[in-house]
Amino acid sequence: DSAEASPLVVFENIERCSPKCLEMLLENISGLTEDADFTVELIPEINVAVATFLKNIDTKELVKKCSQHKRVREFNMTARLLESTQSIKAENLPESISSDYLAVYFESTRNGGGPVADVQLFPEENSAIITFCDHKGNS
């Protein structure tokens, strides 16, 4: 397929691998350096980590290498590309926030955004769903 692969790789079932261990494992497999070439964000509530590659690498090939790597298999972890989405959920928003403010914020290229199609506010949850016009502005 000609679509560009996502620069985001999801690692699932990470409970047996400490954050530092995962970072070193990724450095060993990719040959890249954490902080300079990629970052790792942990989402402990769902037992997942997301690696964001700052360098343009073949993430499909990296996922393949990870799934074949002895240590990744010993930890029972899985790796996959993070699929693109057109919507994101923003949480812990101030009570006074407006949908117009959120649209402008998420359209800012400085914040990594792009054209916003819709903003749904959920004041009772202090959250909102932001829907983009395309997949480009939602990393």
TrEMBL record:
Any one Pfam family match given in the protein's UniProt record, by short name: RRM_PARP14_2
Start and end residues of each PARP14 second RRM domain: 5-83
InterPro entries assigned to the protein according to its UniProt record, in alphabetical order: Nucleotide-bd_a/b_plait_sf, RRM_PARP14_2
Superkingdom as given in the UniProt entry: Eukaryota
Gene3D superfamilies from the UniProt entry: 3.30.70.330
Stated name of the protein: PAR14 polymerase
Native source species: Spizella passerina (Chipping sparrow)
Biological classification of the source: Eukaryota, Metazoa, Chordata, Craniata, Vertebrata
Primary gene name: Parp14_2
